[in-house]
């Protein structure tokens, strides 16, 4: 998947062609990677999930953490297929009850990611899922949250990577698995 | 059992009788359980021993899906969230219970597979957790219905009322086509405002709403009435406050 070109799984090209690029969204200069068009193609969506499930099913993953909101589209199907619990990582004030938070930087200012206390236990082996990795700020916050409660983050999994933004370097040494690069 | 309920309900869609705990569930009622809301200050378990034994009794009745009491008991109620007086139905604890989550999806999939449903629409954000697994299993596309300004490109939007003011949900232009058959998924139906807006959005582009499906209903808020012709299928009912 994220490795050699020669070994690229034939399903990947089918997924790549379904991703829609929307120029100047949310603002001028940004080429937005829209995965909703992948979700409209049952085969492409199934292939996306299958590729991740095949990779993780024998890795003893007990937690799939998905980042709001597009991580919620891919995380739960993976979690269900590999028998892991699904833990939503959310914007502030969405999760009821006791939460812990991790701050991360935006282009202008900061934001926060929250997780429920008690959702993840020390010793849990975790996968972090989002649709895309850009700067890696959100994923790094997710890794921090999970590590703070004693979980081991095994890998981060994203459908798309924007390699020029070097997000891969911000994952505290954790490996990244992605299906499609956009340069 | 489950399939008999499914086909009857989808064809004729009469408003079902309110499910009552402890009563025999008859063939054309919803396979749901009404549970008392329960203050659960520290633990993640929702229900008291009394409620659990009532559920066990109901589970032995003919026609009762044994998975449903377990699903119901995996839901956590958080008092006074997001504001005092509201008993918030927290499904995140259901997602932590791998069997309960799988059972939840399986029940919906068994109901909707093979019914010519080509669209599963899910309302942001908790509808995104339940909708895609159902869509994948029945071979339908998944269409996210989102808060304003989240979807890139061309969208259509529908306004709906809140307690104070209004909000909007949006859907991509071209995501669905006239004549498609859809189900709409959310974790919970309260007043029905969001679901009603989702129905209007899809109907505006010529889609037929086969059913709305939620894990939880708060029947005292009468959300069902806002859904017009669209039937509602739920697994668990609970008191609002």
Q: What report would you give on this structure?
A:
The complex is a heterodimer of chains A (183) and B (241). By secondary structure, chain A is α/β, with parallel strands linked by helices. Chain A has five helices and nine strands; from the N terminus they run αββααβαββββαββ. The longest helix of chain A has 15 residues. By secondary structure, chain B is of the alpha/beta class. Chain B has seven helices and ten strands. In chain B, helix 1 packs across helix 5, helix 3 crosses helix 5 and helix 5 crosses helix 6. Chain B is globular and about 40 Å long. At the A-B interface, helix 3, helix 4 and strand 4 of A face helix 5, helix 6 and strand 5 of B.
Can you summarize this structure?
The complex is a heterodimer of chains A (183) and B (241). Chain A is of the alpha/beta class. Chain A has helices at residues 10-18, 36-39, 42-56, 71-82, 137-148, and strands at residues 20-23, 31-34, 63-67, 85-89, 99-105, 110-116, 125-133, 152-161, 176-181.
Count helical runs of chain B: 7
Helix and strand string of chain A, N-terminal first? HEEHHEHEEEEHEE
Rg of chain B over CA atoms, rounded to whole Å, is 17 Å
Biggest contact: A-B, 39 and 39 residues
Mean pLDDT of chain B: 81
Task: Sum up the structure in keywords.
heterodimer; A: 183 residues; alpha/beta; five-stranded parallel sheet; two-stranded antiparallel ribbon; 5 helices; 9 strands; globular; B: 241 residues; six-stranded parallel sheet; 7 helices; 25% strand
Q: What topology does this entry show?
A:
The complex is a heterodimer of chains A (183) and B (241).
Chain A (H helix, E strand, L loop, with lengths): L9 H9 L1 E4 L7 E4 L1 H4 L2 H15 L6 E5 L3 H12 L2 E5 L9 E7 L4 E7 L8 E9 L3 H12 L3 E10 L14 E6 L2
Parallel strand pairs in A: 3-4, 3-7, 7-8, 8-9
Antiparallel strand pairs in A: 1-2, 5-6
Helix pairs in contact in A: 1-3, 3-4
Chain B lengths: L1 H11 L20 E3 L13 H11 L7 H7 L2 E4 L7 E4 L1 H4 L2 H15 L6 E5 L3 H12 L2 E5 L9 E7 L4 E7 L8 E9 L3 H12 L3 E10 L14 E7 L3
Parallel strand pairs in B: 1-10, 4-5, 4-8, 8-9, 9-10
Antiparallel strand pairs in B: 2-3, 6-7
Keywords (chain A): Cytoplasm, Glycosyltransferase, Purine salvage, Transferase
Subcellular location (chain A): Cytoplasm
Family (chain A): Belongs to the purine/pyrimidine phosphoribosyltransferase family.
